[in-house]
Amino acid sequence: MSGRAARKVLVLNGPNLGRLGSREPDVYGTTSYEGLVGRCAEVGAALGLEVEVRETNDEGEMIRWLHEAADHTLPVVLNPGAFTHYSYGMRDAAAQRTAPLIEVHLSNPHRREEFRHNSVVAAVASGTVAGFGIGSYTLALRALAEQLTD
Ligand code: DQA
């Protein structure tokens, strides 16, 4: 083990994502939210990242978490759920980021209903990973790890 402390990363999930596993499994898969948390922690640890996973159905709480990330220079993996498509408040909070922020989606919103085709966050994110189920999160963590060592 190197002596370097693991870099902290926040994985932030918006509305309905706490219901993973039972929520529309044909769209979002059968892995539970707890399974997602475990997988992110496991992959993060292998990448030298200390991953903290949170979920909220509350737009204000999500905005406060993004402020916290900005104030502490914390990289973020963000699945905004439905906030993706309409929350300018969340978008403005994400725009204040002081470290990389990667937007993720389990599904590929572009293959779905028209209202999902627009993301108000995409333009202020470092990048977006969508359509790979839980793999979207682990790919985003890998991308972050690479960005943080550049
Ligand atoms: C989602 C896609 C959004 O359109 C939807 O509202 C979600 C989940 C995804 O991970 O595929 O809640 O962000």
- Helical residues, percent: 25-40%
Question: Whole-number average pLDDT?
Answer: 95
Hetero groups bound? 1,3,4-trihydroxy-5-OXO-cyclohexanecarboxylic acid
Strand order of the largest sheet: 2-1-3-4-5
Strand tally is: 5
What does this structure look like?
The protein is of the alpha/beta class and 150 residues long. The chain has one domain: 3-Layer(aba) Sandwich (Rossmann fold). 35% of the residues lie in helices and 18% in strands. The protein contains five helices and five strands. The protein has a five-stranded parallel β-sheet, sandwiched between helices. Strand 3, helix 4 and strand 4 form a beta-alpha-beta unit. Helix 2 packs parallel to helix 5 and helix 3 runs parallel beside helix 4. The protein is globular and about 45 Å long. The mean pLDDT is 95. The structure holds 1,3,4-trihydroxy-5-OXO-cyclohexanecarboxylic acid. 1,3,4-trihydroxy-5-OXO-cyclohexanecarboxylic acid binds next to loops.
What order do the helices and strands come in, and which of them pair?
Layout: E1 7-13, H1 25-28, H2 33-46, E2 49-55, H3 59-71, E3 76-79, H4 88-94, E4 101-105, E5 127-130, H5 135-149
Parallel strand pairs: 1-2, 1-3, 3-4, 4-5
Helix pairs in contact: 2-5, 3-4
The structure holds 1,3,4-trihydroxy-5-OXO-cyclohexanecarboxylic acid (DQA).
1,3,4-trihydroxy-5-OXO-cyclohexanecarboxylic acid binds next to loops.
Descriptive tags:
five-stranded parallel β-sheet, 18% strand, binds 1,3,4-trihydroxy-5-OXO-cyclohexanecarboxylic acid
